[in-house]
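COMPLEX REQUEST
Ligand: NAP
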Amino acid sequence: MAKVGFIGLGIMGAPMARHLKVKGHEVTVYNRTSAKAAAWVAEHGGTAAATPREAATGQAIVFCCVGNDDDLRQVTIGPDGAFSGLGQGAIFVDHTTASAEVARELDDAARQKGASFIDAPVSGGQAGAENGVLTVMCGGTPEAYATAEPVIMSFARACRLMGPAGSGQLTKMINQICIAGIVQGLSEGIHFGQKAGLDIEAVLDVISKGAAGSWQMENRGKTMNEGKFEFGFAVDWMRKDLAICLAEARKNGARLPLTALVDQFYADVQANGGRRWDTSSLISRLT
Ligand code: NAP
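STATUS: Structure written out below.
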């Protein structure tokens, strides 16, 4: 069992930290809004720290799941940041969806402390975090990964080292690029079926067993048809992720015409009041 810290008890972080505690790890948590950390400790046990630095001090592994690049810099290399508490040989595992650039920057900063950094964005959403079945895409050294992987598996069903620092984030970008195109295609299919007057549930039932089937169709098709979007992964987060993908594509020369277009479609959804709706709300701008 490991002595671990966890920074960021949001929708994803709180259940991930709970799985670590349930598996028997010794968990110290930090959350910016301290009431959330106090409530987490009251429910699950463990210790609440007053700063990221305190949460990282003396830990073998420090986990983190905050919002974006700037948030991540703040809790790591900012004042009272976790990196000022990291000891020699400690491993910092970041589950935030962020840029590959910040991952490389923090990898350098961790090395200077004799510690290691693993970028480890996740897929599987809130349900995946709550049920401990996330998919984790990692970038880092094989040595650090070998130590961290069994602990990460406390809340994951799949975890893989993709290459050096930044590779986990690059893999997550591909995940988001694929989702953007699939959700737009599914939106158009359902919209077309509605206009054609077909029984959409029957349509989805039959075509999901063929070549058009997808996770999105299985899990979101029915609710998209019903216009229900109040769950899952928010449009605001998706736009943050697509901005990361498009910025990376400008650097590596990849052409992402559909991703760029779908990003603008999501801007329409935001303008229509859907900032916190699920990503499947892409269909709402067609109906
Ligand atoms: P969330 O519920 O909004 O939680 C964000 C957490 O980060 C909160 O604990 C928040 O603290 C903390 N935080 C944000 N900015 C901070 C700062 N500057 N300093 C200190 N703490 C800060 O978000 P979430 O849904 O858990 O998502 C977290 C990350 O996972 C994001 O990068 C997201 O893209 C990614 N992700 C989310 C999902 C999903 O389905 N939700 C799926 C895959 C990946 P406070 O409580 O004080 O606000």
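REMARKS: The longest helix spans residues 167-195. The pocket of NAP is lined by residues 8-13, 31-33, 36, 65-67, 71, 74-75, 96-97, 122, 125-126, 233, 237 (CB under 6 Å).
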